[in-house]
Amino acid sequence: MNLKKRAVGGIAVAGSLVVMSAVAGAAETVAAESTAVAVETRTDLATDGTAGVVVRMNEIETDAIGAIDRMTAKMKQTETILVAAGEEEKEASAIFEKERNALVISEEEQRLPVISEEEQQAPAVSGEEQEAPVVSGEEQEAPAVSGEEQEASAASEEEASAASEEELLWQNRLMADVQEFLYVRAAGDENAEIVGKMYKGDVAEIVEVGDTWSHVVSGNVDGWVMNSYCVSGTDAMNYAMETVETSAEIQANGLRIRSEADTEGSVIGVVSTGMALTVDTDAEPVDGWVAVNYGGQTSYVSADYVTTELALGEAVTITEEQEALAKQKEEEEAKKAAQVASSGAVQSTAVAASVDDVTLLAALIQCEAGNECYEGQLAVGAVVMNRVKSGSYPGDIYSVIYQSGQFPPAGKGSVGSIAANGPKGSCIQAAQEAINGMDNTGGAVRFKRASSGQAGVVIGNHVFY
Questions:
Q1: Is residue 24 part of a domain?
Q2: If DSSP codes are grouped into helix, strand and coil, which group holds residue 268?
Q3: 102, 132, 148 — which closes off a domain?
Q4: 427 and 366: one domain?
């Protein structure tokens, strides 16, 4: 750029010098000619007089005009020279710009990668081919994947994705790794108030993890649990799968339960929407069917009409637990009342239902063997407990004693009366030992008067068999 400015400046100076020289030359010529004319005029005036003066003045005027014309011509010539210089300046500027661009292109070419002759001669590659991945020789020779293999691969990817989502879901979960239950406290302190319980199989959402205690929420319980009794994340997921039953919830009314995983299998039951069955995870999986535990045996339901999930529980507040226990007791009392009514008992149901198992059993022992030896009293209590444990009789002491047609003193009201007044001490002791597992009958579930001739173990006035 500086070279360009210098060239233009030089041309301008040269032009100015030419003009100044032309003007100076013209002026000198006019002055010289004027001097010569003046001398000649003085001479003519001396010889010719006035007429000569006039003639000479005309000649001077003509000569002056000629000089001016010559000066004007020289100035036009100078202007032409300046115009030409301007044109040359433009040409010089264009040449300069061209050379500068050539220098810039040369620098860019130096930065570009060198392309070999082979690459220059290679055929042009389309946009799609440029974007296509390079395939190695081994990949080109690999056999085509069949449709079944593609489906299997897709199924495998779906299973992996589902497993990944499940693991992600469990990253913020916690379970109590205990045999029965874990206390949930109002703060991370062993002396803090107990606000709830997490039983085995209950799950909680983690709010905050501490070094010793963690803040969790489960159901209506919001509190802290000790970390040493819990598992979380993937460990909690694995723990749940190992220890928690899987539930199958029925999604259709009239769903048939079959003995085999086959639509031709015999129907052993019918269930309705909302009912839940326990999945038999030990059974061999069968495509399209879910194995369930029904009536104590492995049965099958169509997988299209059930949803399966882990039967996870939630923590309960102390109030909720107390309410549940009260409700359970009411149901048991109602059940006992119904059993007593069906047996035609005339005793006070309220009294019989309100006493504990030891008192109730002691009252029956006193009615059946109150005047016999202690071993005879213990044997009567053992018969009742053997029935409770057998599975062929009701599963609790009250129901066994009040089962229709089994123990006459219960049906007549004698048991309720003695329970209300309080049994003898020996009968209470015998009842307690029987409940604790003492049995001197050899597993007998019945007894009669010894005089009946029934074979069995004779203790006191009764034979036990």
A1: yes
A2: strand
A3: 102
A4: yes
Tell me how many domains the chain contains. 4
With beta carbons less than 8 A apart as the criterion, state whether 311 and 247 touch. yes
Contact 205, 218 (CB under 8 A): yes
**Considering the domain boundaries, does residue 132 fall inside one?**
no
Q: What's the one-letter identity of residue 386?
A: N
Residues 363 and 450 in one domain: yes
Q: Print burial letters for 55-67: b (CB count within 10 Å at least 16), e (below 16).
A: ebeeebeebeeeb
Q: What whole-number distance in Å separates Cα of residue 374 and Cα of residue 459?
A: 10
CATH number at residue 305: 2.30.30.40
User: What DSSP letter does each residue of 294-345 carry, written as one string?
Assistant: ETTEEEEEEGGGEEEEE--B--EEHHHHHHHHHHHHHHHHHHHHHHHHHHT-
3-state secondary structure of 255: strand
Provide the domain limits for residue 222.
159-243
Is residue 319 in a domain?
Answer: no
Same domain, residue pair 341 and 429: yes
pLDDT truncated to tens, each residue of the chain (465 aa)? Answer: 444 444 444 444 444 444 455 444 544 544 444 444 444 444 444 444 444 444 455 555 555 556 556 655 555 555 554 444 555 555 545 655 665 555 444 444 445 454 455 544 545 545 444 444 444 544 445 455 566 666 666 556 665 565 578 788 899 999 999 989 999 999 999 999 999 999 999 999 999 999 999 999 999 999 999 999 999 999 999 999 888 889 999 998 878 889 999 998 888 877 778 888 899 988 999 999 999 988 788 999 999 999 998 889 999 999 999 998 888 888 887 776 665 554 444 444 444 445 688 889 999 999 999 998 999 999 999 999 999 998 889 888 988 998 888 898 888 888 888 888 888 889 989 999 999 888 999 899 999 988 888 888 899 889 999
Residue 239 and residue 251 in one domain: no
In a domain, 153, yes or no: no
Residues 206 and 256 reside in one and the same domain: no
Mark whether 68 and 89 lie in a shared domain: yes
Same domain? 426 vs 351: yes
Whether this model's pTM surpasses 0.90: no
Q: Are 380 and 367 in contact (CB under 8 A)?
A: no
Contact 278, 297 (CB under 8 A): no
CB-CB neighbours of 449 under 10 Å: 10
What tokens were used for 71?
A: 């000066």
Task: Give Cβ neighbours of residue 109 (< 8 Å, ≥ 6 apart).
Answer: none
Q: Which two tokens stand for residue 63?
A: 């000569």
